[in-house]
């Protein structure tokens, strides 16, 4: 029982990290039909910049702020110089953002070197609590808490504010929103920056969680986020949250019980979804069609 | 003007082919032979990728799966059976069968959806195959891979060079024939305007699947050649980097042109080879992906047709403007008369 609970918490923490990454991706896709393959690079830069400043200043909070800033700044550059020029052309979008992903991934190695980078949780998050034999690692609970807060905040923003209403309307019918005199490009930039900032946050949270950082995590987690977006349904934040937790928990259980196929579990899950429900768990049917 | 007059481009190709045919007799340095063989093999792979990306407008992120299947098929056949021609034949048959079935399945699942579903599914399937190759140790020796022996003819660097060259030329001719065929025309039409083709009564899905199966099978052949040239195979044949190489070659050389992938393969292989030497001079050259990635982004943004495509476009424009000035002269002549 304790083992199962422990794995569950581990899976939840991983799921939350992936959710932070996938939420931006799914919103950007739902609103502007843009598929950002460079999203993993924002995550990567967030992780490296955050951990670097955290190491320099010994302040985890400053590190988190730096990660969010790094994600948002690179996101803004990406949106302006890479995505806007090829707007509306799916194939070129996929290609150009993939190119950006490659370049940004290699640039990390130029700035911080190609070697592994170590990361430790700050003092106040080290260690664990114990409840009758059940060991709860503080840092994992911290990730789950941050993820839940961000998810709640995102839902509030989308469902209770005027800006969120515009975003939701944009997901449903972009032309209509434009016709009502709202500058959809500005809304898009906002959503993009929000998604990029969440990716950066997710990146730095991963650092102390896995203990080491390397340049390939960008692509690895980027792919995971994509799998989650496809499973959850393109454009649906709640769908992404469910799918992210599903992927995280399933992955954690598989890693414990059948480690041989742990890597394949997510892929298999996506295969099943693509075959039986191509629009994803909570996606709209039209979103998947050509 | 006779009908059989060759265009300057065709003459250039024939000269290039003749040069490549005599090259091993002029310069038989081992490194050059290996480099050229690599170029031929990756040209075949890039041409098959180009059929998807350039002629049908499908983006695949897992084209390496066919490459890897071919490589493992020949490796395992040579290792488990005696290294003779029967084994090679069996490997070819297995490759064709596996690649055709797999590409058909992947295609029928996702080609009816938006383009990125196909990209993601191919990425996932290639990843699955890589994991399978890693875990099925009794057959594949896992991550370490294994070496194997090949028939004597395939051991010789020069004969392998010619075999790869012949296969490249054959693939080029096949692509030429295929893209000019009615099916090829429909594929280009799908790339240009899918809804229109559909409303004209074509079953778009079927044509896309045909393209995927043809591309997959050819990629399998390039995988066979690759493994034979190394006489070694490991899980890296399924890596995303293999697909990315094909993508870079196709985009930089010229997407949707027949010769583009060959030029791209040559450029990238030679550049990688050269940069590897330069890496000893300064570490920045180890990060060659930055250079290629930047070129890739610039090409996608400003020259979406790549080197060959842009050159053809430029030539076409020049011809047209020449024609226009000629027409003008004619007209002014006619006016004075």
Structure description:
The complex is a heterodimer of chains A (290) and B (337). Chain A is mainly α. Chain A has a domain of 202 residues. In chain A, 76% of the residues lie in helices and 4% in strands. Chain A has twelve helices and four strands, in the order ααααβββααααβαααα. The longest helix of chain A has 31 residues. Chain A is globular and about 60 Å long. In chain A, 52% of the residues are buried. The mean pLDDT of chain B is 84. Chain B has a single domain, classed as ABC transporter involved in vitamin B12 uptake, BtuC, CATH 1.10.3470. Chain B has a two-stranded antiparallel ribbon. Classes of the chains: A mainly alpha (290), B mainly alpha (337). At the A-B interface, helix 4, helix 9 and helix 11 of A face helix 5, helix 12 and helix 14 of B. Chain A: One of its GO terms (biological process) is amino acid transport. Chain A: One of its GO terms (cellular component) is plasma membrane. Chain A: It is a multi-pass membrane protein.
């Amino acid at each position: 029982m304790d083992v199962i609970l422990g794995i569950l918490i581990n899976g939840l923490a991983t799921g939350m990290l992936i959710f932070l990454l996938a939420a931006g991706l799914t919103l950007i896709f739902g609103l502007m039909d843009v598929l950002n393959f460079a999203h993993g690079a924002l995550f990567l830069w967030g992780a490296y910049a955050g951990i670097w400043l955290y190491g320099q200043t010994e302040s985890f909070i400053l590190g988190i702020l730096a990660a969010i800033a790094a994600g948002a700044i690179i996101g803004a550059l990406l949106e302006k110089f890479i995505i806007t020029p090829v707007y509306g052309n799916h194939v070129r979008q996929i290609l150009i953002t993939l190119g950006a992903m490659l370049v940004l991934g290699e640039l990390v190695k130029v700035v911080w070197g190609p070697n592994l980078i170590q990361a430790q949780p700050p003092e106040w998050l080290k260690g664990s609590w114990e409840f009758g034999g059940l060991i709860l690692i503080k840092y994992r609970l911290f990730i789950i808490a941050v993820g839940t807060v961000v998810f709640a905040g995102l839902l509030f923003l989308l469902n209770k504010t005027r800006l969120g209403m515009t975003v939701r309307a944009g997901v449903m019918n972009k032309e209509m929103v434009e016709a009502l005199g709202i500058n959809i490009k500005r809304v898009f930039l906002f959503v993009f920056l929000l998604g990029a900032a969440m990716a950066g946050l997710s990146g730095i949270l991963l650092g102390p969680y896995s203990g080491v950082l390397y340049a390939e995590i960008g692509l690895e987690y980027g792919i995971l986020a994509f799998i989650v977006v496809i499973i959850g349904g393109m454009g649906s934040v709640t769908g992404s949250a469910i799918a992210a937790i599903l992927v995280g928990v399933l992955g954690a259980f598989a890693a414990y019980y059948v480690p041989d196929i742990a890597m394949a579990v997510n892929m298999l899950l996506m295969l099943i979804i693509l075959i039986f429900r191509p629009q994803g768990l909570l996606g709209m049917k039209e979103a998947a069609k050509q | 003007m006779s009908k059989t007059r060759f265009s300057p481009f065709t003459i250039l190709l024939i000269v290039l082919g003749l040069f490549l045919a005599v090259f091993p007799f002029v310069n038989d340095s081992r490194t050059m032979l290996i480099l050229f063989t690599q170029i031929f093999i990756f040209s075949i792979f890039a041409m098959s990728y180009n059929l998807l990306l350039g002629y049908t407008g499908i983006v695949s992120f897992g084209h390496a799966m066919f490459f890897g299947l071919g490589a493992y098929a020949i490796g395992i056949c040579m290792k488990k059976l005696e290294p003779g021609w029967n084994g090679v034949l069996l490997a070819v048959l297995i490759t064709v069968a596996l690649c055709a079935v797999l590409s058909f399945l992947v295609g029928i699942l996702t080609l009816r959806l938006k383009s990125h579903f196909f990209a993601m599914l191919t990425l996932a399937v290639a990843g699955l195959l890589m994991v399978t190759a890693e875990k099925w140790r009794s057959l594949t020796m896992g991550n370490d891979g294994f070496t194997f022996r090949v028939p004597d003819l395939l051991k010789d660097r020069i004969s392998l060079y010619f075999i790869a060259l012949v296969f490249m030329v054959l693939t080029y001719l096949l692509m030429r024939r295929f893209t000019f065929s009615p099916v090829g025309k429909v594929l280009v039409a799908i790339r240009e305007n899918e809804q229109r083709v559909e409303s004209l009564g074509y079953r778009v899905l079927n044509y896309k699947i045909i393209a995927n199966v043809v591309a997959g099978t050819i990629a399998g052949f390039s995988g066979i050649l690759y493994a034979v040239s190394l006489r070694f195979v490991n899980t890296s044949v399924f890596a995303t980097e293999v697909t990315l190489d094909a993508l870079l070659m196709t985009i930089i050389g010229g997407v949707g042109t027949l010769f583009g992938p060959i030029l791209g393969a040559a450029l990238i292989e030679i550049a990688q080879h050269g940069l590897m030497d330069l890496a000893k001079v300064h570490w920045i050259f180890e990060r060659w992906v930055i250079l290629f990635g930047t070129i890739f982004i610039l090409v996608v943004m400003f020259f979406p047709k790549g080197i060959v495509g842009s050159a053809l476009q430029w030539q076409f424009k020049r011809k047209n403007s020449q024609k226009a000035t000629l027409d003008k002269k004619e007209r002014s002549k006619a006016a004075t008369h």
